[in-house]
Amino acid sequence: MTTFNFSIPRQTQHLWQKISSHWSHYNRPDKQRFLGSIQISQKATDQVLDVVGYNLSKLSTVTYNKLYERFDEPEQNWLKILTFALSEYAYYYSSVEEKFWYGFCQKLKLSCNRSLEKTLRRIVGDGFDLLGLVKAKGGYPYVSTLWLQSGIPQQNLNHFAHLVQEFSNEYGWWEIAHSSCEDISEELFDFCQEKHPQWATLIHFLKASCPQKENEEVEPISGQLLQGIAIIAVELERQGTLPEALKDDNEREKLLRNYYLPNNFFLRDWNSLIQVLTPKQRRFGNSRKIISRRQKPLSLVLDVTESLNMQLVLPEQSLWKKGWERLSGTFCQIPAAHWEGTIPNNPGLMIPEQVVNIKSGAELWEWQLLDHRKNCLNEWKLEGVASNLPCLIFDAGTGEHLNLDSANPSIRGAKEIIFFTPKGICLDFGNGIEIVDTCVPSSIRGWQGKQLTLTTKESSIVFIAFSDEEITTFPTISWKLSSQEQPSLRGLKLKGKKSVYLEIPTFWYPPIEGQISLNVSIENITHQKTIITTTEIIQPSDKWQAIPLDKWIIESGKYEARFWNQFHRWSYKFETQSNYQMASKPEIKNLLISSSSQGQVENLPIHNGSADTFWAEEIKMKGLLPLEIISLSLYDRQETVFSQCQADSLGNLHINLASFYNLLSPDSNWYALDFQRIGGETQRLIEMEVASLVISCTWDNQAVQISGLLSNELYSLSCWNLLLPENPPVEIKISRVSSNEDIIAIPLKLQPGIYNIQILGSRKLRHNLGWWCNSNQNDLPDETLENEDLADYCYTILDNESVSDFVKSANKYDYDPYLLQTAIDSMKNLPCYLPEWLQINSLTEKLQAIVENLKVKLKSPASTQKVTISKGADTVHVPAIKENWLLISLTNPKKRNFVFKQIEINIENNHRQKGNLSIHLPKQPVYNDILVLKYKNINNINSYIPLEYIQQTQPLTSNEAQKILIS
Fold first, then answer.
1. Residues 258-270 pLDDT 10s
2. Are strands 569-576 and 592-595 parallel, antiparallel or unpaired?
3. Contacts of 65 (CB under 8 A, 6+ apart)
4. SS3 441
5. 3-class secondary structure, 701
6. What pTM did the predictor assign?
């Protein structure tokens, strides 16, 4: 291959076509491609490196101009090949022992010097642009971009995977996924140096992701990689998907496309990280926090919401530097902000947000953090008013300061601005600039402002200063509108620069010409819980369009909202508070809290190790206001139930957890209870965590091999045969697992069928394994020998017949809706052992059709007798028999728990009829908008039901009610 001659365009074209045919990112949009997705062997890579070395060695001197002259061709394939060769060298061969460019030249057997190094840097920069690659910013822009193409250099992969395992055990996936890439890079670098100082090569790679000087801009490659891995781990755990799904390149691409990953996230080799991504028990409240110790910059803003003052703002930040530990417990201050504090014993000096009104202009604003002896510990600098451009310009909508280049000043993007200058300066506006307000007051003495709007695509502003002696003309400022407006999050905010809203904010999308889809994810940061992941369609419009977040967010708290598609991504961290919420939460020392298991409680939350002890807990509070109303929120993994309770006249409150037992699923492995005082923040009162089944399995035609089971626990397999839908699952007992058994094989001696298999634990824990079938296409269960309808039903599945034919046969049988939905999820997300003749997509459609059919059946009347409730009706007379059942359909499924609780209260208040009434909450997901009421000898049943939330009711037979209630 070394005979390829870059001077012959036909040969370079042929070689690049061979390389690019393996490039999975070839058709991606510009600046979204990674060269590491070119899937060729290391042997082929070495041949390409030989070709590049051979052609460069034929030049007497390698200079930028000579390369373009010697290898002159319109498509510049030689440049693409050279850039690819550098990317492959970065992946396979770059190391700490040698400088990158020197090592590359040694590999190609070239004599390295500064001139050649400079040429290679310049030429590979052209290659990045030509190939449309993702590029790194700051730091080592060329080498970092080359490393970025594959993620982690090959020789670092095993060490990196081991480090990620340790780091995730220490901090938890959720914390990593929601920290900044810059903070993760620095924490990971320090962590590796502390734990593995001998890993010099990996430490060198991690160091390149961290700034070595203050205010240095560096691409946080390691932080982006680890944050992306953490996001994937959190999503895999949330969806119940095993990490083995990432092994297949095509499946991985489809899966990752639905995740909100960092812009520069790409990993070439996943093999060493598959095991690291195995779901693990989440440790609520016990994981370490990634503390940001990066200095956040001073900024200039205009308070457009209230005072119109120009302000210097220092964001809230945590700082720590070497040597500060000897100052622990001593006084410190920021004189410019009139802030004082104490240096803590542990790393992390927390400085709250500081806002100072500006009363005079300056060419440089400088703030200092001083110790008790007035020595400077840290400083923040911000360029102010340039002497050759005396003006300050702000976006009229956001108050953001628009920085100008004094040599070539221009305004980009803002449609409306507020323009401040010293008095005595005359402004001349070009065509298309309209004056909205001629006199905007200025907080800087001797200055004045004008509010301007641009009605054309482009214009300019000229300003001239007149004095007694001369006329001074300043550089002309050009003003252009942005070609594309950006979305924004809007809502009523608290005063200050932090994103704290007094209402649930709304995401606004600018006018667009064509339809687009946006992935949406809303996460509760406080409770470490994903509220919703969905897709919203934005229709073509010449107006801004709203996506209200209040349809997903229903309570105060801290959230992160993410919006993304293939081309763009936006993320917003914010907090919502009540209009009457107090600034700080009530201190626990004002309350006396005790629990039945732990006595007096000093710190919240109370922790329980099992579901039994959680539900048996009784909690007493003293020190509340007389008759104070307390809001309670009860959680499990899937659902939240809200309720209220009231203190007695002495301010005492007794909470019995057992009274809430029926409100949530008894099979969950995590519960928590929060409480909130009026005007206060929500506080976690008690929580419980039980280690979940963390298992993986592999299939063959005779057995399933399972790893991850706990020793000395009792387990069994539950095998439901789709071909026998009304039969209960076959149970296979599993012998107790010994402590030295990592993997156990369980024979599957089952009659012909298509089985959905789950593993059941002794603690009521259930884990889906997937689907298994070892039958031939014509094999039928024995039950079909005397049941022609059942045989026809089986053939609609085995012969891959149409969905309509399947539904027609399946309607003759009763299905467990909960089991059916679980089986569908298993087929979509888990590895299965199914024969090639069985069409999986078709089978999934058939099962989904049955679920939809069950919903229709449920919501249609069971008989000709129908009772419709309206607000004008006082009573509905139902024949009084010994036992009656009533199906209650709700207008809004989200109100189900509230209506359930209201009916319970109404029943409790009517002591005479208490024994004749009971309300039931079906557990299956398909019944998420109904309740079932059981009653005897009561005519005015409506008096117990909050009518405003009811769509309709209908009588049920006892058998129908039991089918709905038994999961």
1. 888 887 788 888 8
2. unpaired
3. none
4. coil
5. coil
6. 0.55
